[in-house]
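Translate sequence into structure tokens.
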Amino acid sequence: MDVLDRVAAPARELLARVDALLVGNGAPPGHPVWPLLRQVRALPGEAVAAFVAVRPEPLAAAGTAIRPQLDGYAEAVDVLAGRLDWSGPAAQAYDAARRTLATRLTGGGGAADPDSFAGRLAATAGYAEAVADWAALSRAGLAAVLAEALGSAEAVTVRTAAAESGWSAFGQVGSLGPADAAATIAAAVLTAILEITERGEELLERWRPRLAPAGGHRPIDVASPGAGSDGTIRLRY
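Result follows.
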């Protein structure tokens, strides 16, 4: 359980009231909450509930689980590098194919080439870990916004508004007091949600080139006399 989990329960009740006021009474004309509602396309309670379900732990665990698989690529390259005990045109064709395959598996260097299969797998692990970091930092930031909202004067106004009768010590629910208070809380929460979403989209854009499918390679084609009508052996994998 993290800090967002601890504030989510009390915030849920407050945001339910905020959502109800927005749906039933709207917000003051020209209030900053209007463009935020259009951008996020969700009420603050709905948006927070959706993000509370985003957990960093499974993402971090996925990255950790992927990394040991990189050893398999290195082991396969070691096998492909073994000495050939035969010679001739077929041996030459096989040797060319295995060297090409080894390059595609790891890039042939000391570290995995970013465009190799191992490089793409390493990028997948790195992306999962980066998303886990984004989720953890975003949860902490949202928790701070919710905690501030819970202790605000606007929260007192929203809670005091008697939605059942439409009246409170602050006047009618549809009046400026509760409506403006709900809109102010909603604007703060939706701003945080929008910033979280934008950072997530920026993260994806930074990683997208490294997450492209490995290769886009054509099959390995090596010429071998007598291997067919066109003298070509084609190995597909």
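Note: The chain has nine helices and four strands.
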